[in-house]
Design goal:
It contains 2 helices and 5 strands; from the N terminus they run αβββαββ. By secondary structure, it is of the alpha+beta class. It is elongated.
């Protein structure tokens, strides 16, 4: 009975660990000294699987995010990474702010 309980408990801990996700935000410094964040925001996203395959390839960059937001003058860049399934899948978002 105790052996079954330990096995079930270990499986439950492993399952919860694999299904949780965490996010990190790396906010880049303003590109122009003392520049305001800007009224517009644009995003470009991709999903990276096993660190090998990306859903968007090289289309998740500052230029694409600026185009998506209609921004011609970028003042700040922010990167957001969200790990899913213990880091097997990573959702990477590039956000830009500007005019």
């Amino acid at each position: 009975m105790k052996k079954n309980f330990k096995t079930i408990a270990a499986a439950a801990v492993l399952a919860v660990g694999m299904l949780t996700s965490c996010a990190t935000i790396n906010s880049g410094a303003a590109l122009a000294e003392k520049a305001p964040v800007g009224p517009k925001m644009g995003e470009a996203e991709s999903t990276i699987i096993l660190g090998l395959f990306s859903s968007r390839g090289e289309q998740n960059n500052i230029k694409q995010a600026a185009m998506n937001g209609g921004i011609t003058k970028v003042t700040q860049v922010e990167y957001v990474d969200q790990a899913i399934f213990g880091g097997l899948v990573i959702k990477h978002t590039t956000r830009v702010y500007g005019e």
